[in-house]
């Protein structure tokens, strides 16, 4: 007799997968898209709860450092559900595009955009790949990416694409998780992200993809702020500053392209 129940999709990340470096997985892009598709419906709620309501403050700090002007064209890469994109739009750029690899996340962003007040800055959401941005060279003034660069197959290749699409003197802002320097905060942060958050976030999202097991592992095996700065310099950026937030649990790296 044929079962009336649909087969559950395979987990994007199993405990065995995460014993090794997830950034080395040959099919990392497929796994990342699968996990974000799975968690998209409750992604925002999990972000608020498990950052202890600090995630939007981190995004607002990123917008402040971007120093948006009315003549700026802005691209928010790995925009997800559009939280940072919305805040950037409120800063009043000439144009703004939110781009993400996962269509399910963009669906949430577009639904949120329909609730924006009349007369708000228009936002264009489109599917796209950070390693192959479908935009001409020298086409924007600001590129932002929040909690996304570690999820691409080749972060250095993505950084080179950011440099390509930015105009001379353009600004790149990378908001990414980092490891606190203070030993006590480092210990508390590790306990929370490795043991508490994967359980509670997974339950809240009804997640079977392994997304919230992947998160702490992907952070611990990714570039620290020093390595991030080195990677950006290698593709031609000048580092304008690095700004640790909330005891160093995340860091904003600000970089500029050379002015001509």
| Overall CATH class | Alpha Beta
Main sheet record:
7 strands, mixed
Q: Count the DSSP helices.
A: 9
Overall form: globular
Please tell me the CATH architecture by its name: 3-Layer(aba) Sandwich
Radius of gyration (Å): 18 Å
Question: Could you give the order of strands across the largest sheet?
Answer: 3-2-1-4-5-7-6
Assign the structural class, choosing from mainly alpha, mainly beta, alpha/beta, alpha+beta, or little secondary structure: alpha/beta
State the separation between the terminal residues, measured CA to CA: 71 Å
Question: What would you say this structure looks like, in words?
Answer:
By secondary structure, the protein is of the alpha/beta class. The protein has a single domain, classed as 3-Layer(aba) Sandwich (Rossmann fold). Helix content is 40%, strand content 19%. It has helices at 28-39, 43-50, 55-66, 83-90, 103-113, 155-165, 183-205, 211-220, 225-234; strands at residues 73-77, 95-100, 124-127, 140-146, 166-177, 238-245, 250-256. It has a seven-stranded mixed β-sheet, sandwiched between helices. Helix 4 (83-90) links the parallel strand 1 and strand 2 (95-100). It is globular and about 50 Å long. Mean pLDDT is 93; it is low at 1-8.
